[in-house]
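Researcher: We're teaching a course module on how sequence relates to structure. For the next exercise, students receive a sequence and then see the predicted structure as tokens, so they can try to spot secondary structure elements on their own. Here is the exercise chain.
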Amino acid sequence: MPQSAERSKKFPSSVPGLPILGNALKFASRNGISVDFLQQAQRQAGDVAHFKVMKQSFYLVSHPDLVHQVLLERVEEFLKPDSASQKPNGLRRFLGRGILTAGYAEWRPQRKLIQPLMQPRQIAKYAEIMTEMGEQLLGRWKPGAQRNIHADMTQVTMWIIAQTMFGINVDQSRELEEIGKLAQKIVVDDLASPLPAWLTGRDAQSVEINSTLTNLVNRFKAEHQTQENADRYDLLSVLMAMRDEDGQPMSAEFLRDNILTMFFAGHETTANTLTWAFSYLAQHPGILQELQHEVDAVLTAESLPTVADLPRLPYTLMVIKETMRIEPTVAIIPRFIPNDTPLGDYQLKAGSFVLLSPYVLHHDQRWWTAPENFDPLRFSDENEKKIEKYSYLPFGGGPRICIGNHFALMEAQILLALIARRYTLRLALGARVEPLRQVTSSPLYGLPMVVESRS
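Model: And here is the predicted structure for the students to work with:
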């Protein structure tokens, strides 16, 4: 760009903050990222809003056209923050250089490797496992009992990802749950905390977490070797059969990073989406009734949902999509700016972070009518075509869109139909439903619900 054009760019408006701390106390709290602060920043400073946490600058980008530039047109200018740092922090503390955190050049061959496992034809083969695991979960339910639905959805999606991608069984444990929450808190604090990692203990905690995660990977590999099958075609088999340019097996680090990435990203996001779906359905009985009417028309009392049934369950899918709009499982998508760069009418400074917020975009009245209302019909065939591109980002966008998006949608649709056919879930008396928005958005206190058998 000519220097005269660069000089014509202006700096974005800034959100006022405190001396030294800037907006640190508002940006993140005990509930993780504050979407209220982000929405306020967008209303106050516009579609490119500048704010600071200590000396670190952030630009909240909230217009679909500019989001399109960051995620698609100029993907090599706006970097994954984990890949841009010399010192591992954020998600890279735990996932190394796997497909989610690797730089663009490292990411491309990894995506090429994993993509065949996520093609629609291959995913269709997983449907039977999804249904089987759903039935296994429901076998634990008793009519009238109170269940923590978030824990149950985490368990069933963990079973599914472990079986489909690794060919093993993994039960949710208290240890996995706790280290998952702590790891996410560390990732958010790396981005938003004004205090250094060594002072808060994040570095020491990360060492302990990584030891547990490495042990989990070693268990996966050991079980795989005891179940050797030449006909197996899953992620673990593909990764362990890979060879580098010298004909040597891939490094233990490469295997670890990608196994952990697919395991955690592959179950937690869908678990959260289903959890929020049941929460919203309990608050909107008319929508629940419409969903159950559709499921009853497609599935008999004894039949289980199959891939062939999914096109006949469009409202079920609409409920999933609207859930991901109103409570996206990822509240912010960060990118790092290594060089001074223009974006729209503005000039952004090197060393800053760009934040794209699906939550802010999904609740913007310019793109959505009555955005606070839960309305699955936004995603009818007719209405979905009218949605502004890059105003809806449940899986991100551009070349680095979530590789498991089709897998997640099919899994959520099957499990929602399976459960809605048999049960009505009511919020337990006194249930506190409060989001914890860290790397992903989950209910802070779980989701206690009473499962009522349908007649």
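Model: If you want an answer key for the exercise: The radius of gyration is 22 Å. The longest strand covers residues 48-53.
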